[in-house]
């Protein structure tokens, strides 16, 4: 487990360098990737479906990204892009294309479909977090206006 955490931290942090993330946020971006991967791998060890595990992990990545964005006064995308890097099914997509080249279309189709579903769950987790964040902020704003008018 420790090797998974360390590798995901390094992957997210070094990928952040490619996107010119401010130096003060590199460790935080690495932490976001590590947290998402930790949730994913712990769910996989509990024999949860990889698509559901990826959905949960990407949702966690998005939530932590919003918190860090507010804390460090940076855009959310700095943390969310770095955070999802360990979750991207690149190896699975590669294996699907390799099987196409080897004329093993059945295996290629299975792997491609699974990679597509995992990619979709990453997107859905990020969108779900954003929608819930907007709903929360809207309700919080209404509560502040209500409390302000009463005071």
Task: Explain what you see.
The chain has 151 residues and is mostly helical. It is 84% helix and 0% strand. It has one domain (2-150). Helix 3 (50-72) packs antiparallel against helix 4 (76-84) and helix 5 packs antiparallel against helix 6. The relative contact order is 0.13.
Query: What is the residue-mean pLDDT, rounded to a whole number?
Result: 90
Distance between the termini: 52 Å
Rg on CA atoms, Å: 18 Å
Domain count, please report it.
1
Extended strand count:
0
Major beta sheet, specifics?
Answer: none
Q: Strand pairing plus helix content: what structural class?
A: mainly alpha
- Number of helical regions: 6
Strand and helix order: HHHHHH
Name the shape in a single word. globular
Work out the strand percent: under 5%
Which parts are unreliable, with pLDDT below 50 for 5 consecutive residues or more? none
Which labels suit this protein?
151 residues, 84% helix, mainly alpha, 6 helices, globular
């Amino acid at each position: 487990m420790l090797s998974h955490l360390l590798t995901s931290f390094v992957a997210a942090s070094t990928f952040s360098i490619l996107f010119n993330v401010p130096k003060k946020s590199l460790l935080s971006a690495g932490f976001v990737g590590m947290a998402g991967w930790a949730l994913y791998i712990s769910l996989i060890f509990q024999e949860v479906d990889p698509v559901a595990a990826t959905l949960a992990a990407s949702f966690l990545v998005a939530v932590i990204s919003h918190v860090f964005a507010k804390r460090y006064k940076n855009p959310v995308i700095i943390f969310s892009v770095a955070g999802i890097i360990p979750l991207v099914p690149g190896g699975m997509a590669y294996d699907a294309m390799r099987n196409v080249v080897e004329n093993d279309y059945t295996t290629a189709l299975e792997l491609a479909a699974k990679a597509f579903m995992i990619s979709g769950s990453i997107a859905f987790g990020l969108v779900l977090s954003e929608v819930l964040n907007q709903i929360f902020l809207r309700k919080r704003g209404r509560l502040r206006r209500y409390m302000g008018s009463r005071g």
